Hints:
The protein is of the alpha/beta class. It has helices spanning 9-25, 41-49, 60-65, 83-89, 98-111, 136-143, 168-184, 200-204, 219-223, 335-343, and strands at 4-8, 29-33, 54-57, 71-74, 92-95, 115-121, 149-156, 191-193, 214-217, 241-253, 278-283, 295-297, 303-307, 312-315, 328-333, 348-352. The protein has ten helices and 16 strands.
Amino acid sequence: xxxxxxxxxxxxxxxxxxxxxxxxxxxxxxxxxxxxxxxxxxxxxxxxxxxxxxxxxxxxxxxxxxxxxxxxxxxxxxxxxxxxxxxxxxxxxxxxxxxxxxxxxxxxxxxxxxxxxxxxxxxxxxxxxxxxxxxxxxxxxxxxxxxxxxxxxxxxxxxxxxxxxxxxxxxxxxxxxxxxxxxxxxxxxxxxxxxxxxxxxxxxxxxxxxxxxxxxxxxxxxxxxxxxxxxxxxxxxxxxxxxxxxxxxxxxxxxxxxxxxxxxxxxxxxxxxxxxxxxxxxxxxxxxxxxxxxxxxxxxxxxxxxxxxxxxxxxxxxxxxxxxxxxxxxxxxxxxxxxxxxxxxxxxxxxxx
Length: 353
Ligand SMILES: Cc1ncc(COP(=O)(O)O)c(C=O)c1O
């Protein structure tokens, strides 16, 4: 029964509607990213009924399980060991390695199925993408010689690894590259994919970046916030997902373990602060399901003490509510906790309207 993750489908639908309207008003198409909720079928269905143009995921396994009329996009750069599946399952993939694109062309030829490629440029976040711009024109020219690869555009990603904020300066590097390509060759890209949920702050401020006509959005749909500054997006909900976990023990105990301290279950040497005698609760959910640092209790008098694989220990000493064993505690989730809670098969997913 517990732990469970409540998923409010109406609130998710409203997030999808508001953010799609915002993007459409800036003539920006959307790749709806499903990976934070493991391509959950009911949530994908909401994307399917929307006017969003593409469904995207970083995991091929998730994409494989998605039924949709929209084009499927593989977000993570393809592995050379899975190219046949990439071409069979995805219509489009994000790429930065010429050798991979060359091998995609060969694979696509063997399968007699064309594959679309979005070439990724790194503008400073230092995850995927071509970094040295002097190479780009030659790479684009070479890709264009491939018969089974259709280079549909270029893209960039920031605020994922390096935390770089998309603004006029950062995205100026992308614009320079687009202009360099346009000056050197006669090419008209269908897509200039400008980034992820961190780009939304620019739209909110009505700041249109030239050329960008597509965004790949995951977190903003799920949590109703842009990710450059973490601000809530107008007309969206931040509580589409709520975690509920139940208390399986409540006891008064000291705050410092007794005896010689060695390592905990994760090989770490724990340290403790002395808060005296505490009313300690144990929740039936643990580190195998979620990192408690990424959970926000609705009861803000509750404090986290620690966790092991199957337990989260909480301090109930200062809560107004007199908790009893069996009581259920509710938490708001962050991106990180949503990702792991959706991935954990031990957390039941319950849909509410
Ligand atoms: C390449 C790429 N684009 C877009 C996204 C979506 O990012 P966000 O969830 O911040 O919108 C991700 C992450 O899932 C990604 O890896």
